[in-house]
Structures are given as C-alpha cells and as structure tokens.
Amino acid sequence: MLTVVLFTAVKMMAQDDPVSVLNKINVQMEAVSKRYVVYQSVVAHSDNLRKAEKRRQEMMNQVTTARQSLAEIPYYKGDRMLHQAFGEYLKLVEYNLNEDYAKMVNMKEIAEQSYDKMEAYMLLKDKVSEKMRMAGEKLDSVQRTYCKKYDIKLVEEQKSELSRQLEKISEVSKYEDKLYLIFFKCNVIEGDLLESLDKKNVNATEQLRSSLKSFAEEGSAILDTLKGYRGDNTLVTACRRSMEYYKKAADKYADFTGFFTKEANFNRLKQQFEGDKDMRKDKAALDKYNNAVKEMNDGIGQYNNTNDYLNKYRSETIDFWNNAVKQFLDRHIPVAD
User: Fold this and answer.
1) Which whole-number Å values give the CA distances from 129 to 134, 176, 336, in the listed order?
2) pLDDT tens digits, 173-213
3) What is the distance between the alpha carbons of residues 223 and 233, in angstroms, rounded to a whole number?
4) H-helix or E-strand containing 88?
5) Nearest-CA neighbor of 30 among 61, 6, 2?
6) In angstroms, rounded to a whole number, what is the distance separating the alpha carbons of residues 118 and 177?
7) What confidence tens digit (pLDDT) does each residue in 112-171 have?
8) CA distance 97 to 30
9) Residue 276 pLDDT grade (very low, low, confident, very high; cuts 50, 70, 90)
10) Cβ–Cβ under 8 Å, residues 31 and 66
11) Helix count (H) and strand count (E) of the chain?
C-alpha cells in the first residue's frame, strides 16, 4: 500500500475533501496491514496452531472494524472508487483467513505423510500469498487513479514499511519452502525406510535405500545451482549437510539388509540343528553351527553399532537443519507479536 504525503492546490471543507477521505481509508488499511504482518509473522515463526488461531481471530476482528469504519466514511462527490476497492480487498482478506486458512490447516495435518502432499500444501501457500500481493497492487492502483482524478499531489509515493514487510515475509517463506522440499523429500523416504526395517522387509528396504541415495544426490545437484538468500547461505549449508547424511545413511542401511539375510540363514540352520540329534553329535556340524552363532553375535554387534551411529547422525542432522531454519527466519522475517 502507499505511504502518501499529500497536498492539494484548493482548500476544501473536511467533509468534502478527497484527501480526508483517502487518509481515513488509509488509516484503516494501515491497521489491517499491521495486524496481517503480526499474523503472518506468527505463522512463519511458530508451529503453534493455537497461537496462530489467536492471531487469526484478532485479524478477523480488525477486518470487521475496518469494514464498519469504511461504512462511516463519506463518499467524495458520490465517488465510490476507494470504498469499493478497499471493500473488495477486505473481502479477499476475510476469505483468506477463513476458507484458505481452513484448507491450509487441513492440508498441513496430512502434508507430513508424503512429498506430494507437502508440495501441494506449499503451492497453496504460494497461491494465497500471490492473491494477496495482486490484491494489494490493485488497491494501490485505485489509490493512484483516485489521486490523479482529484489532483492530489503525491509528494512521496513509495511502498510503506508494512508492505515491504509483507513482501519480505512472502519472499523469505518461498525461499525456505524451496530448500525444505529438498530436505523433506529425503526425510520422508527415510521414514518409510525405517518402517520397512521394522518389518524386516528386505526388498522394500533395498528399494527405498536406492531411492534415498538417488534423491540425496539429486538434492545435492540442485543445491549446487542455488544461491544463498541475499548472501545468507545458512539454509543451503544446512540442506547440503543433510544430503551428505542421507547419502551416507543410504549406504549404511545395506548393513541392515545384509544382517537380515544372515539372520534368516542362521534361523534356518538353528532350526535344522536343534531338530536333528545326529547333527548335534557330528563334530563338523557342531563346529559349523558354533561358527554361525559367533557370526550371528558379531552381526548383532555390527547392527547395533550401525543403528547407534545412524540414530546419532540423524538426530544431529535434523537438529542442525531445524536450528538453521529458526536462525534464518529470525534473521529475515520481522518478529511482530
């Protein structure tokens, strides 16, 4: 929206003054924008849905106040141009806070389940942000037309600090989403892989292990083409570190599938050995079984070591990523609460 310093060549009575009408509407626009910045800031900085809902309700109340105030502002010479434009803007904000917000909340609840759902959720966020940006530009255009129509001179015509903050929030969020999708694609595959390990499904684990390695290499290649946000490489660095973990983890998971194969072979030998008295009396068979027991115990030790290594490495990687995101957002999105 416009920050306007205005003057006219003709002095008019307050109730008939087009400047007075414009300024009264701008006061309401400013109040709505301030509340919207607070709302968007909370959404960006916190996953606390209760807190976000509280700010959404406050935003809705501000929209209601603005609509009531708009109805009390007289038209200048019957010209409804500004009133209609601002009324349409408020209607879009209200739709955003109700319909679009409800869609995003519902989608966010299921977005963690798959990459496609997460991508769809982020596309919806971008779509809502773009609608708001276009609505703001349309409102600015109507203001300029109004000023030209009534010979209102704009001493200063520039985006307000609030408009800059809103654009910055959108820009930063879009950048963070791009990096997050690279991270999330591997993260969700590893989650599926861990489930397959719990079920000791060797074929599924091998397929997911291959996918994890492929996605991590793909992510690293994409990161090579990305620049930091305005010179800030925090997220690129954190995401690259994540890709290194996922590539190494994909290789390490081969230890588990190897162990499961060894375990299955051992269980067959054990069942055969314990069920055959002659084998238990045969020295060669007994030596073979004892060697298998030793190899199995060694395999269990290697399995546990690998598991401990991956758990520690995974935890450190995710913590590093989450901290990087928090630092990045704290640095680039204004905290308005």
Assistant:
1) 9, 14, 18
2) 899 999 999 999 999 999 999 999 999 999 999 999 999 99
3) 11
4) helix 81-95
5) 2
6) 10
7) 778 888 888 888 888 888 888 888 888 888 988 999 999 987 665 445 666 777 788 888
8) 18
9) confident
10) yes
11) 10, 2
